[in-house]
Specification:
- The protein is globular.
- The chain is mostly helical.
- The relative contact order is 0.10.
- It has a domain of 67 residues: Winged helix-like DNA-binding domain superfamily/Winged helix DNA-binding domain (Arc Repressor Mutant, subunit A, Orthogonal Bundle).
- Helices cover 66% and strands 11% of the residues.
Length: 148
């Protein structure tokens, strides 16, 4: 019986260090994003849009693994802030397209220093960050296939 209860120790869980790391990384991002008036979640949306503008909400949702109940209010706040615009797809009125405004495009220049600043605060070199990113990405891919 003791062996079973050991499996329930917090330090034996894979979920906890991932959860803690996510929370701590978001805290590191906060002062970097504050001058841009972006939250961490908004920054992730901007990263997606800087790669490919004028995207359907569903594509952004799938890329970030967010549910629509989380993403919709986030996009509305970003639109009110002037970073994005939302419009109906003329070929399919059910789809909403998200586009960057001029201000949203311009924000990319100000955000360019963020990855380097985060790397410095984490204390890993670029190679170390790339290895960590690749391992984490592989985990996300495996988990996403189990969830969907």
């Amino acid at each position: 019986m003791q062996e079973d209860s050991d499996q329930l120790r917090l330090d034996r869980q894979v979920c906890f260090p991932l959860y803690a790391a996510t929370n701590l990384i978001q805290r590191l991002y906060r002062p970097l994003l504050e001058p841009l008036a972006l939250t961490y979640s908004q920054y992730l949306v901007m990263l997606v849009l800087w790669e490919g503008d004028n995207l359907p909400v569903g594509d952004i949702r799938a890329c970030l693994h967010l549910d629509i109940g989380t993403l919709s209010p986030l996009l509305k706040r970003m639109e009110r802030a002037g970073f994005i615009s939302r419009s109906r797809d003329t070929s399919d009125e059910r789809r909403v397209l998200i586009s960057l405004t001029e201000e949203g495009h311009a924000l990319r220049i100000d955000a360019a220093s963020i990855p380097g600043a985060l790397a410095k605060s984490v204390g890993l070199d670029i190679e170390g960050l790339e290895v960590l990113r690749d391992q984490t990405r592989a985990l996300v891919t495996r988990l996403a296939s189990e969830v969907h």
